[in-house]
Amino acid sequence: MTTPAGIDAAIRATSSDEIPFALIEQGFEAFPKPAGKKFEYGTTGIRTKGDTLESTCYRLAIIGALRSKSLNGKLIGLMVTASHNPEPDNGIKPIDSRGEMLDVTWEPYCTAACNAVDAQEFFGILKKLIHAYKIDLKTPAKVIYGHDTRPSSPMLIKAVASGLAAMGAQTIDAGLKTTPQLHYLVHAHNTAGTEEAYGEPTEEGYYKKLADAFLKLVEGKPATSKLTVDCANGVGAHALLNIQKYIPSSALEIRALRTAIGTKGALNDGCGADYVKIGQKLPKDIEKDGVQQGDRMCSFDGDADRIVFYYLRGNPAQKDSFRLLDGDKIAALATDYISELAKKAGIELNVGCVQTAYANGSSTKYLEQRVPVTCTPTGVKHLHRAAEHYDVGVYFEANGHGTVLFSPDALKLLSEAKPTTPAAEDALIQLRNLVDVINQTVGDAISDMLLVEVILRSRQWDCEEWDALYEELPNKMLKVIVKDRAAFTTEDAERRLVTPTGLQAKIDEVVAKYKDARSFVRPSGTEDCVRVYAETGLAAELDSLANNVAKLVQEASDA
Ligand code: 16G
Ligand code: MG
Predict the structure, then answer these.
(1) pTM of the entire structure?
(2) Residue 378 beta carbon below 6 angstroms from any ligand 1 atom
(3) Tally of structural domains, the chain
């Protein structure tokens, strides 16, 4: 075995074993980094054009194996997906051993490893990582990997498998999976046979767990009208089809649309949660599928970790008949429902809600009148962490990413409570089953879909009644292409700019001219742009506010 120069005593001291440098170097040459390309660990991992990602997948597989070793050989996950991005994009998201996102302190190592220009530089980074986390190389590594439906996935999975093979890791090839399914599998594997066992660690086990809980939750409650689901022509179609094997149509009638997994170019094209949320409109041409006024509809994104609902109110020919029920509305629905159940069950639960600056002002006002509300920067990892501070942490981004976390204390209370009335007992059973229908590891379109269905069923509400919880303030998002998005830095959970110097004061001045207005600017973590969000009390003023703030951003970038 050849070892590069510079391998120092620090590594040897941590283990009697060594990194298999020679093997790693072979793969390093087989999966060359595109010259000049710069990779960056973004909000959820590395995401860019799929055909440039082989070297990144190979290198992150090696880091993934080290992560598993650093966690005493617990299983970690690697998901190959680019979520709602266009089909030619792809990406890789590492998943930590409890099914949550990778520890953020590892992110800079991932960025550096993917940008290393030669094997020596790469080995140097591995060496630093091993030293910083005192990784015992003798510990075996265990990694599960999966992918969504993109055409570039098989090629990238090969690179992942090569990196893991070079490290001698034990592997599980999970194949086609939704992102939340892979999170579930990681957590279920690592807790199997323990008191915390999360569920059977198979895809089948995932469907059974969710479906069993759902069927118990809706038992005896009359079924409502059918639900139309836009699967974004992605892996969500596969999961939806499979869960229907466990949920008979008498319990939930589903009409699955945009299920063309194998059709080239179809993924997220004119459909999916992002298309619907950003455009505030129906998936393209869905009218041709016979969608009618009042129909309850929802859209998944490309890896099925996001969901938004919507319906047509009044005359479908009118543009404003489209009504979006986004992550904010799901949060309001879930928060109220869980708070009520806890009260009925006679147990004290500190229910709290976590949002980002993108939450509509009306939703924040609505929630703040009921529960404590926290605002975090964008990205599930931030919301998830904040939600862990509550007994029950409801977290949703407006774009439909989110879930509800029950803390270990809350779970204990639920399992030990002794209800004194039949009504309290019913509420308690409902709460216990809710825990099982909700994916506790990450936001999950399938699980969130079932949660919403349970609540609407229980309340016997249609979309219009749900929508009536509060009226959204008119809002809009714009993208500004700037010279250097890194020049835009923020504070206060991204609500205020720190740099470019002086820009925030100018934005404040503009916003003050509009009634009940709010606007903020932040650099995107997934695209090369700066995003402008604007919200006003008066719909007629919205475009003017958004455009004026975007203009200030452009001027600051050009200055
Ligand atoms: C990623 C995040 C999402 C966030 C979005 C923001 C996860 C699983 N996904 O898709 O939560 O809303 O990025 O994108 O964390 P942006 O930084 O481009 O605005
Ligand atoms: Mg996604």
Answers:
(1) 0.95
(2) yes
(3) 4
